[in-house]
Amino acid sequence: LEQEEEGVSLQDVIEEDAELEATASAVLGGSDDKACTYPLGYVKRQALFACATCDTGDQPAGLCLACSLECHNSHELYELYTKRGFRCDCGNLKFADFKCKLVPGKDPTNDENKYGQNFKGLYCSCHRPYPDEEDDVDDDMIQCVVCEDWFHGRHLGATKVPPGMEYSEMVCFDCTKRLDEHIDGATHEKNGEKAPHVNGASFWPSDWRMILCRCGSCVTIYKELDVEFLLEESDTVKAYEEKGRREQSTGLEGVEGMSRVHQIEMIHGFNNMKEGLTEFLKSFADQGKVVTADDIRQFFQTLNQKRRRLD
Questions:
Q1: Cα Rg of the chain, angstroms
Q2: 305 in helix, strand or coil?
């Protein structure tokens, strides 16, 4: 007998959508959705995208939030979450004749930008897309705080997250090994000890950056390794998301601060979502089918696509 799919309650639906909306607000709330960030230079941290529709050859390129909506709104995009120290590439030399609608006169290249395989839609040490239709393993993706690539939990080397440990940031195997050889290795050599062998990623609690050594020798090493950002608590994704939450009004508080016209538009949009969800759930009830978590995710994915087109 086939195993019956696990059903979900309406409360599950509400909580799932609320969690997705909260995460989106936190990530995007710290970014401007109307103005290209190019004039701001290399932004400390911002939400970024890469365009799969625009052909930039073997030269990866990144887009700010505003350009993803205004210049590439009908294109296939890779959502890169956030990246540090990046300047928007939209419409520069990498895009040939394509010009940015928001800031058309950009320099040919942004030489200080750093790129990786994420800009081509590939992730992890397995170099696979995400989501991956050929991967049937349910596994979390975790971002390395140093190289900012994303990794499957099962591909982080011999080191695993200790059971029950609440970690704040992860440093992947390659970055842990590289930093350990220079930073920890120098410290152990100074103390007459042998540096430990690293065979996996490392996981760090919320205050780990605050206790990093800030002596002159160590700061010099951070500069040589180009990881001075580790000394800044404001560099963390957590700090960025908290900033986004503060700037992004939600719920009734946001509605009360709107003009009457915007209030009506907001309430109208909510009612449309509620009616659509009711019809969606009714179709399952009429057919005697169980609503699964995947069904709900598909509903909200379709809804978000409609929202983007309307926006």
A1: 22
A2: helix
205 contacts 166 by C-beta, under 8 angstroms: yes
Dig out the tokens for 97 from the structure.
């004749």
Instruction: Give the pair of three-digit tokens for residue 226.
Output: 């180009």
In contact, 82 and 27? CB cutoff 8 Å: yes
CA–CA distances in Å: residue 118 to residues 77, 236, 257:
11, 19, 38
Residue 269 and residue 185 in one domain: no
More confident residue, 224 or 191: 224
pTM, 2 dp: 0.70
pLDDT band for 259, please (50, 70, 90 cuts).
Answer: low
Distance CA 150, CA 121 (A): 11
Residue 70 lies in domain = 34-120
Contact partners, residue 230, CB within 8 Å, separation at least 6: 145, 146, 209, 212, 222
Question: Of 230, 247, 264, which one is at a domain's C-terminal end?
Answer: 247
What share of the chain has pLDDT > 70, as a percent? 69
Calpha distance 256→8 (Å, rounded): 33
Residue 134 is assigned to a structural domain of this protein: no
d(CA 176, CA 81): 22
d(CA 292, CA 286): 15
Determine, yes or no, domain membership for 5. Answer: no
* Type of residue found at 208: W
Distance (Å) of CA 89 to CA 9, 36, 106, 182, 185: 44, 10, 8, 33, 38
